[in-house]
Every structure is written in structure tokens, then in C-alpha cells.
């Protein structure tokens, strides 16, 4: 990769930024400054920076320029090399005899799993009919979210913890696609949903701390690693109940393939075993807590901070709603 990027520039420097980078993450407090550290790297050394991670963990090349990133992805080929997204999760899954998942695989095994998912998601019928097949799901959960926010506000003097609400919404929305059922995360199982959201949050926190600390946990079970395993066990226990139920319910479906939704298609693919199916469903169910939910909060914040954008958005949505619902308005000031 470095050789490729050198060709794209007249001059590229790869400083060994080892001393400061190794000590920066020894304290828990400094992890929250990771973004600032990356900004500092970029300002000091430019768009390409090679960093020694120390302790024999190799190097990381930070690619800050979008054009360089495009070139890297363009040359990935059939079997790109993927650094594990979360080494702690990879180690946990291997320890438990699970499929590591797409984010932790490479080579032919990655390609086998990736191509199976792609065939399900990118079928011509799925792409052409996605709005008919999945939009009702999206609308159903969106309506439940609006009602839930209103109810929360009425019971708390108008203040709503949107971080919690976003996590509940992410679980509920994912479940309709992944398990083809409602969970009640926005209704009668709020406490259960909040527990899962909290577990996921603590798992990510510990993963970050272990990622940037000395990797003693690789060689013996440290207190943080033991806690990590405990939290993962609790989260997976709940998720596996849902996954096992979905596999039992949807396997052997008598629906025609063009009528099946994503989970049914995936579960009935003969080239995938139960471990493959389980880790795909697990990833789709849980990953939204660290991706979709924060993005919802980010977008809501930006809309709330820009009243003119609110007005434009309201006009656009109401124009479409008016056309579809004969003048009934769903958005007001």
C-alpha cells in the first residue's frame, strides 16, 4: 500500500512516530483525545503517516487524503487484507468457537462469507423491490419511535435522553430485518433493551482501553479482559436466543425466493452453516448500536442547530406526504 501511495505523490514522508504514540494511550483519560492526536499527526506530517504501535504490534499507515484512500480501495482486488476491527472481539469469538465475522476474516474464508451476503443483498429482485419489501418495516419502527419520544417527554417534563432512545430504536429497527419480528425495545421491553445497549457500550469502552494499553491480555487473563469476557457473555446470551429462534422459525420457509426477506434468504442458503448465519445476524443486530444510533443523534443535533434546514426538510417531507396521503400533514412546526 505504501509503495502505491508513494507513486501518487512527488514526495511522501513516513516518519517513525513511535515514542509519543506508544505513551499517549497508557491512561484511560487519553483515549478520548484520540481524534485530537490524529489531527496533530496530520498537521505535523501531512496526508500519509506511518506509526509504530510498539511492543511488536507492527505499524499503522494513516491515510488522511480521500484521494489516497480511494486509490487504496481501488487496488484491493478480490482478497483485500483487513486488519481486525476489534481484536478483543476476534479473540473472544475464536475462544468461544464462533465464526470471527467479516470484520475479522481475511483470504478465501472472508471471500466465501462476503460473496454469500452480497448475493443475498444485491439480487436484482432485492434491489428493485427494496422499497416495497423493507420500507413498511422502516415506517413501522419510525412511527413507533415518534410515539416513544412523545411518551418519554410526557413522563419526564419534556426532557428525553435521546442517546438511550436511539439505542432502543437501533435494536428495534435491526430486529425487523435480522429476525423478522418486533422486540418491544420501544414499548414493553425498554428495560431489557437498555441493558443490551449498556452492555454494548461498556464492551466498546473496554475494547478501546485494551486496544491502546500494553497487550498483557494476549498472554494471560487480566482483570479488564475477564470483565470483557463477562460482558460479551451476557450480550451474546441474549442475542443468541433471538438468533436461534430466527433460524428455527425461518429455516425451510415455503415462500418463493423472490418473496423472501433478507433473513429468510440468508438462513436458507445451503452454502452457509449455522455459525456463518449466526455471526452475520449478530453483526447486523449489534453493529447499529455503534453506527446507526450515533448517526441518528448526529443528524438530529445538526437539524436542531439549523432552523432553516428544519424548515426546508419539513416542506420537502410534507410535500411528499401530501401527495401520498391526500393532504394529511405529519410534520408541523
UniProtKB/TrEMBL annotation:
Cofactor entry: heme
Gene Ontology MF annotations: heme binding; iron ion binding; monooxygenase activity; oxidoreductase activity, acting on paired donors, with incorporation or reduction of molecular oxygen
Keywords, ordered alphabetically: Heme, Iron, Metal-binding, Monooxygenase, Oxidoreductase
InterPro entries the record matches: CYP11_CYP27_families, Cyt_P450, Cyt_P450_E_grp-I, Cyt_P450_sf
Family membership: Belongs to the cytochrome P450 family.
PANTHER family: CYTOCHROME P450
Protein name as annotated: Unspecific monooxygenase
Protein species of origin: Oesophagostomum dentatum
